[in-house]
Amino acid sequence: MSEFSTNGYLDMELLRFTTAGSVDDGKSTLIGRLLYDSKSIFEDQLEAVKRASIRRGNEHIDLALLTDGLRAEREQGITIDVAYRYFATPKRKFIIADTPGHIQYTRNMVTGASTANAAIILIDARNGLTEQTRRHSYIASLLRIPHVIICINKMDLMDFSEQRFNEIKADFIDFAGVIQLVDYTFVPISALLGDNVVDASVNMPWYDGGTLRHVLETLEIGNDNNLVDPRFPVQYVIRPLSDEFHDYRGYAGRVAGGIFKPGDEVVVLPSMLKTRIKSIDRYNGPCEEAWAPMSVTFTLDDDIDISRGDMLAKADNLPIATQDVDMMMCWMSEQPMQLNGKYAIKHTTRDVRCVIKSVNYKVNVSTLEHIHDGSNVGLNDIASVSIRTTKPLFVDSYSKNRRTGSLIIIDEATNRTVGVGMVL
């Protein structure tokens, strides 16, 4: 299945990326090609895909069947759900979120892209930039995905034209300036034939950049996490039952930002009490530093009342403690948002309740126009919303920290997630 040894696998760097594009741009075929040419497919999977391709009368193996897992997707030839796939190369581990292209599945794309280091946006070389391309690019910008790779696909149907590639590239650069995309790369490919996916294309000698796999393997993701603003939401308080460790009290969680070291003075929110970090423990023993997104346990010099939902930060670098939050929200429920409605919120490890105070505007994701038409926010809508919470949240702007700047809205009656918010 794989072309590398498992020695050191656990220590390999992980990159999460999502795919997006218009219907029939070839997202599922691209992911299938990436898995196939990277030798990341089991033999029985490949045989099943070959048989299914023969039944459909296809000339080539339909690699899209590797990712289109739902029966409805196979029958319609589209992607509906978020399909997660895992593979690795000798240089890096990957998690792929293959997200839908249809506008009615915007919430699925938001879900798949929310934790991504990179986004692959496919453009059909025949069609150029479409309304859906602009919508997906805007969502990538809204979600602050650090790296965007523009794959101009189906170059084989345009005779591998350099001129066509440059035309689409120029159009996208103009649009990227409007939505404030910063880090983006262009790769001309043919997912069907494999050109520039894993192996370099002999049909496009004019392209001197790396293949898609090379770009994914060499993206610099070390600075994707906020390493400047120390944030540690407490998830669990560890009090061993054993008499041997009766005096141990640890605070477990995942670092959401910055760097912590033993000896650092920290402030506990919301109490504002100060203490120092005595030790930092990981699954394999003590460590001298902890940074995002490491999962660690802190012990402190002082016995302070700290519980789940509290946060540790530095006195000279505190998050905003507020009960009034303005955010961009993607509504994910078929039940429309209720103005003045009461909902539950989960922010990092903190659980509170809130009231939707106002809807400032909705965004037409295709044209980027702001729509001021009252409070009607429905499924897949993206809107600027103001809320009031029952207890303070400790937030940063989403542009500053994706972890402390995001939250989810929950319907208390059904316990379903109905919205996701990004703090402004």
Structure description:
The protein has 424 residues and is an alpha+beta fold. It has 3 domains: 210 residues, P-loop containing nucleotide triphosphate hydrolases (Rossmann fold, 3-Layer(aba) Sandwich), CATH 3.40.50.300; 83 residues, Elongation Factor Tu (Ef-tu), domain 3, CATH 2.40.30; 104 residues, Beta Barrel (Elongation Factor Tu (Ef-tu), domain 3), CATH 2.40.30. It is built from 7 helices and 22 strands. A hairpin with a 2-residue loop joins strand 17 and strand 18. The chain is globular, with a radius of gyration of 24 Å. It starts with 13 loop residues before the first strand and ends with a strand. The N terminus is likely disordered.
Topology at a glance:
Layout: E1 14-21, H1 27-37, H2 43-56, H3 71-76, E2 83-88, E3 93-98, H4 106-113, E4 118-124, H5 131-142, E5 147-153, H6 162-179, E6 184-188, H7 212-218, E7 231-238, E8 250-254, E9 259-260, E10 265-269, E11 273-282, E12 285-286, E13 290-291, E14 295-300, E15 311-313, E16 320-331, E17 342-347, E18 350-364, E19 369-371, E20 382-395, E21 406-411, E22 416-423
Parallel strand pairs: 1-3, 1-4, 4-5, 5-6
Antiparallel strand pairs: 2-3, 7-8, 7-15, 8-14, 9-13, 10-11, 10-15, 11-12, 11-14, 16-20, 16-22, 17-18, 17-21, 18-19, 18-20, 21-22
